[in-house]
Amino acid sequence: MPNILTGNRLETGDVLYWDGADWSTRIADAAEIGAEGEPLLARLIAEERINDPVLIPVTGSAGNWMPTTTRERVRASGPSVRADLARGSLSVEAI
Q1: How far apart are CA 47 and CA 45, in angstroms?
Q2: What's the domain count of the chain?
Q3: How confident is the model over 27-85, as pLDDT tens digits?
Q4: Dist. CA 22–CA 30, nearest whole Å
Q5: Residues 6 or more apart whose Cβ sits within 8 Å of residue 83
Q6: What gap in Å lies between CA 94 and CA 83, rounded to an integer?
Q7: How far is it, in rounded angstroms, from Cα 71 to Cα 80?
Q8: 78 is in which domain, residue-wise?
């Protein structure tokens, strides 16, 4: 199962996804993380730019990722109580 890297921006709390070169607010931009996952996590944690970076399992393919856990699907799509505030390519109905 593929993994992607997610975390939160310290200043705003925005959910972010690693796109292979920098952080994006869109899960569709996330790059699959392979063997470089642990060294990448160690480097990003040391930089302290992102709060709680973590690898999460996903299904699908690049540009069409779907987190496997409900928690991460909610983080990717926005609030589950206000569908009008949902964002990204995931919909609240997918949860």
Answers
A1: 5
A2: 1
A3: 999 999 987 778 888 887 777 678 888 999 999 999 999 999 999 998 898 776 776 77
A4: 10
A5: 92
A6: 12
A7: 11
A8: 3-94
